[in-house]
Amino acid sequence: MSALIELTGVSKRYGNIKALEAVSLEAHQGEITCVLGDNGAGKSTLIKIIAGLHQHDAGDFTIEGEEARLRSPREALNRGIATVYQDLAVVPLMPVWRNFFLGSEPTIGRGPFARLDVERMRRTTHQALLRMGIDLRDVDQPIGTLSGGERQCVAIARAVHFGAKVLVLDEPTAALGVKQSGVVLKYVTAARDQGLGVVLITHNPHHAYLVGDRFVLLMRGEMAGSYQKEEISLEELTRQMSGGSELEQLSHELSRTDTA
Amino acid sequence: MKAAPTAEPAVAEREGDQPGHKSLGRLMRRPELGAVVGAVAVFVFFSFVADSFLQTSSFSTVLYYSSTIGIMAVPVALLMIGGEFDLSTGVMVTSSALVSTMFSYQMTANVWVGVGVSLLVTLALGLFNGIMLVRTKLPSFIITLGTFLMLTGLNLGLTELINGTVSTKSISDMEGFASARDLFASQLTLFDVEFQVTILWWLGLVAVATWILLRTRTGNWIFAVGGGAESARAVGVPVARTKIGLYMGVAFAAWISGQHLLFNYDVVQSGQGVGNELIYIAAAVIGGCLLTGGYGSAVGAAVGALIFGMTNKGITYAQWEANWFKFFLGAMLLLATLLNAWIRKRAEAKS
Amino acid sequence: MTAAAMAAVIAATLAAGCSSTGGKRAEEEREQSKGQSAVDTPRWKIAMVTHSGEGDTYWDIVQSGAEQAAVKDNIEFLYGHDKEAGRQAQLVQSMIDKKVDGLIVTLAKPEAMEKVVKKAVKAGIPVVTINSGQDQSKAFGALSHIGQDENIAGEAVGTELNERGRKKALCVLHEQGNVGHEQRCAGIEKTFKGKVDKLYVEGTNMPDVDSSLTAKLQTDKKIDAVVTLGAPFAATAVKAVDQAGSDAEVDTFDLDAKVAAGLEDGSVGFAVDQQPYLQGYEAVDLMWLYRSNGNMLGGGQPVLTGPQILTKKDAPALKKYTERGTR
């Protein structure tokens, strides 16, 4: 079975600076692919290419086996790729239901008299959230009044509802506490169970190992490793992720100053 | 895979909602609530201190002045909800009037031709503001400050160049003037009192703007581009088009105001309008628009214009010492806005 | 929206065609002025710097008077203006730097202008003051002052109102903090036997002028005379009087085409003209006379261009002049 999206040897340069060099990645239906890396490892560049904000310079990017070059987030959405950004998931002052349908609002009537199908929007929002396991009492409350985890969940539920095949999540747990992170990860697996391919970007190997099926490690724009879950243990993943030998070096240095 | 078809009929009724409590909650959350309370307070205040404030004819005067502000404040509010400012609105009204009258006069054309040309030119000004904003990505404050200064200069310079003086020539003896005046500057008699037609334009604009804002996709986008432009872009909202559209909406209202100015006073002074842009913004803010965007309402802006109108004229009706006029005006506005903010805070805390 | 706009314009154009009344064509059928140099003196450079704001009809007429005299006298005429006194002084300084052959200047804020005017005099540039600054003109070293005393103009209005049997007048100020305007109102108060009320309006916002006047007249029914301090506001005052159902008479300072028409149809009682055209024209002409023949007007006293009270009987003659912007 072919991958939903597959990147092979993808590179990206900004002027003279190479942001991404020969990175490969695949996401399959009903699987979670984790992209791990420190700050500046090239994770956000990778996300921007998949989400249609930037285009790659070299390598292949295929969607369901078809060569793709996405020119806008709208195009990515139309091809079934939905991206949920860490801080940009929602518009805080707007009610939950308006956020849920933002950019894809259903209307009734035609021409200049087309109006929002408000009742359907409220109802559908409530149901879609319920299906993800969130029971909101009032979908009219500004989404900013929800917790950070809940907001990510609304964004995930939105992507699922609008028929995304691939869900790209940018550091969904970065700004959250332990409990909230757990909630979000639960919804990520809920999305996976509904048959989506998930690309989870994170710098937390513990979160990644909990839910991931494949792991891609990035370091300074280059691919430092690519594993299936059965090929690697959490300890090894953590070691590689946190800089591997570099960390050992650092611990030596620190212990020496300690004894001195 | 679209929305799972099994889910639609599954949850039919909403559980645990008491409709009465919910609609009250929604009302308390409306942005214009504070402004409405402020307006009532200002009204009651001047009813006591100014004897002639409660005459129906006074009512007509106050509404007329409020409408001249309100026609502009409503689209300005929409623009502010969309996260942008427009400092060129005051002089754009004058530009619109000048284009209309000078075109008709110089071409010796039916005044309706001038009115049409003016609509095109004014919309083009709005388009210019919008395109400059989305292309250069500079703050709208800077761009429209530039437009404001350029228009101020163009208004004076072109008028003087074409007419030889800085005011325009009378077009009241030209064909089409009477019918154009009927549309933009006539009076309607109601209960033996004459009301200016601008009040109808004002109410019409409020209705249209409210409908757009709350019941159309465009409205959803306006809130989104003001409340989080990047988030909106990420889910596929056409941010640039929405903002350009908002600037053109402001220009459209400037056209209506400009034609009123022309057909009500016949001769247009080219230095007019400077400073009014701040009054429009003030009305929108009093009406509950956030300066940072993403929040506000058209009704609120209309009520803000009414507060401004009542305060401004109320001081005259109360016959207060003329020298202190501006001080009273400022103090009243500050009080109304504070009351507004206080109410909103209380409402938010409760809901 | 653009489509709607196009449709509206197309509709308007189709329904429209041309206007057979009024407009430019009618104007062109009327006569023209201007002319050419009538003298063969050298081409002197004369500068005028005023405290005019942007788009002030009054100063426009002063300027066109000055320009007409410059054409006739073969003079290169330089004009600068700024409402803010500091910048007006800088403009004067730049004229001194250009080594002009004569300087015409207004002293709306005399303290701010004193230094630079004295500097011009010291540099050997003949200075004539116009419009405002009658009391300081001589002390600063100017050769003469051409203008109207605002107090005297106000007093003339007060006297005229008495003759017309008015009891309560409303003085409409369209610019807060303008000294000349305050003097005009003070002048009215001095000679007028009735009571004078002041009303401040936002001069740059015509609907505000309109509704504030209406509100005032609705409140105070005793007002039987409205005096506007600028010509453009007279027509609006007429409208407001009508709306308020008042029977007050509208009178005004200064003159324009609308006021002239108002005088003719009786909607404006009288206008007090200080003849701005004359201030500009005379100042430039006087400079030429001084340069070519050593003449000077006034004998150390100000040369007054007003007040001239204009009424219905003057209207027919005035209309022609106001329409071409010379009165």
UniProtKB/TrEMBL annotation, chain A:
Pfam families in UniProt: ABC_tran
Taxonomic superkingdom: Bacteria
Membrane-spanning ranges: none
Residue ranges of every copy of the ABC transporter domain listed in the record: 5-245
Single annotated GO MF: ATP binding
SUPFAM superfamilies: P-loop containing nucleoside triphosphate hydrolases (SSF52540)
Keywords, ordered alphabetically: ATP-binding, Nucleotide-binding
Xref: PROSITE patterns: ABC_TRANSPORTER_1, ABC_TRANSPORTER_2
Protein name: ATP-binding cassette domain-containing protein
Organism of origin: Streptomyces gossypii
TrEMBL record, chain C:
Cellular location(s): Cell envelope
Any single Pfam family the record assigns to this protein: Peripla_BP_4
Region (Disordered): 20-41
Domain Periplasmic binding protein: 46-290
InterPro entries in UniProt: Bact_Solute-Bind_Prot2, Peripla_BP_I, SBP_2_dom
Bias (Basic and acidic residues) ranges: 24-33
Protein family according to the UniProt entry: Belongs to the bacterial solute-binding protein 2 family.
Name of the protein this chain belongs to: Sugar ABC transporter substrate-binding protein
